[in-house]
Amino acid sequence: MLNRRGLLIVAAIGFVAGIIIIQPLGVSLFQYDKEDGVGNWWYMFKEAFVQSVRLGGIDQTLKNVLFGTMGSSLALMFYIRKTILRLNRGKGGVALIREFLDKGETHEVELKSTLRWSLRQGKVNKALEMVVAKNIAGFMNTEGGHLIIGVNDDGSILGLEQDYGTLKKPNKDWFEQYIRQLVSLKFGTHLSPLVNWLKWLFMNFEENDICYVRVQKSQKPLYLNLGDRSHFFIRTGNGTRELDIPEALEYLEIHLN
Fold this sequence. Notes:
7 helices, three-stranded antiparallel sheet, 53% helix
C-alpha cells in the first residue's frame, strides 16, 4: 500500500532535485553542445545552478516549475516502482510461508511459538532462546532451512507480541537485534559475520507479526557455546539433534570435507 506521506516527501525531494540538479545539468549540456564543446562545461553548470536558485523573473520561475515537476515525476516513478516490487515480493513471501505452515515441521522447516516467552510459565525462559539457537546451528550444519517464530506446531498464528513485551523496545527492530546478538554470542564473536547469512522477514498474518528466518548452509562446521563447552547440532527428520564427538567427527568427514 502506498503511503501518502511518503509520496509527498518523495515528490518534494524530486521537485527540489529537478530545480537544482536536472535544470542546471540540462541547461549547461545544451549550451556546451551549442558551442560545439569548446567552452568550459563546469563553468556553464555552475552558472546555470546559480541562476536556478536565484529568485528571478517569470521566465526563471516557469523554468523552475517545469524542471521541478520533471524531478517530482521521476522521483515518484522510481518510488512507486520500488514499492510495487516490494509488495510483490511480500506477496510471494506470504504464499511461501503459508505453504510452510500448511505442511508443518519438516527436515527444512522449524516452527516456534516464541523466542523467549514461556506460554506455559507466563514468563521469560532463557532455555527457549537456546532451542532457537540450536535449530539455527542445526540448519547451518546440514542443508539450511526455514525457521518461523510466532506460530504453533500446528501452524496456527500466535504472533510476537509477548516476545516484544520482554524487550527494551517492543517492536520488530529490537526483536531482530536481540536474536542477532543471541546467535552471535552463542556461535562466538569470531563467527559473528555468519549472522549475515540469516535472512530476516517480518510478516503480518491474521493481524499478528511473525518472524521468518531463512538459514543458509554453512561451509564450515558451527559449534554452539553452551555452558563450559561447544556443542555440534544437525538437522535430522523434523528435529534437531546433538552429535557426540565420534558422531560429529564422522559427520564432518562425510558432509563437510
